[in-house]
Amino acid sequence: MVHARGLRKTFGSFEAVRGIDVDVHRGEAFGFLGPNGAGKSSTMRMIAAVSPVTAGTLRVLGMDPQTDGPLIRARLGVCPQEDSLDPDLRVRENLLVYGRYFGLSRRAVRARADELLEFAQLTDKAKAKVDDLSGGMKRRLTIARALINDPEILLLDEPTTGLDPQARHSLWDKLFRLKEQGVTIVLTTHYMDEAEQLCDRLVVMDKGAIAAEGSPLELIREHSTREVAELRFGVGQHEALAARVADLADRVEVLPDRLMLYTEHGEETLAQVHGRGLRPLAVLVRRSTLEDVFLKLTGRSLVD
Fold first, then answer.
1. Which residue has the higher pLDDT, 299 or 272?
2. 168 closest CA partner among 190, 194, 144, 187
3. Which of 1, 87, 156, 171 is the most buried (most CB within 10 A)?
4. Which ranges carry the ABC transporter domain (predicted)?
5. What does pLDDT average to over the chain?
């Protein structure tokens, strides 16, 4: 569905995407994960055929975005990072007008709009003003609008940013149902739990390049340990105590408020810590997550 080799995107002297290789297969959910400025959105805009490729090869649905942009865009659904709904139109009217851009007949677009309102659980809001919708409702309407042309690929840029947990889980359910129906989903996200829930495969991007690729489980197995033991001691003690437990874990990370011990068996490691006479103020043993992988690969420092 998407095939990229040596894909690059530059803006003047700044190289936003630095020669990445990507393949997205039919019917899967594929994610781009990375900090701000990693090149995710620039890559998505090239795939959406709205930003020209600087160098490399890109094929979307077997076509070249440089020469076949309109044909590609007709078969895509795009949900941008910011909601771009028309506040002057009612909820259902937003779908009707957008559907006409794709050349759907009035009869076809009316039927499709009703179908999508039901899918997005917005049937009872069909005549409501957009400004009267909650954030979760607006996001569901934006995704419904992106599906009006029955796309083969749905592009989602930060689909649940700013939503509360209930709205996020509701949206995840909708996206899972779409994938079951055969829609190929390509998304960017900052949420590690979202990537673990939705993505069959993903790439972690950093500074315009791909740092790692695989399924969430594969990435955790390759770049982290099975479990993590978090130990909290008194303020200012963690740096000094790290040396005393360094041999008990595969990797020890010192944070201002805790020690992170990456280990295959957290409870055994914790017992060994106690056996050395150390008494943390608080402990937590948990499984490794995609967030551990992400922070290891991209670092903990803020990116402006």
1. 272
2. 194
3. 156
4. 2-232
5. 92
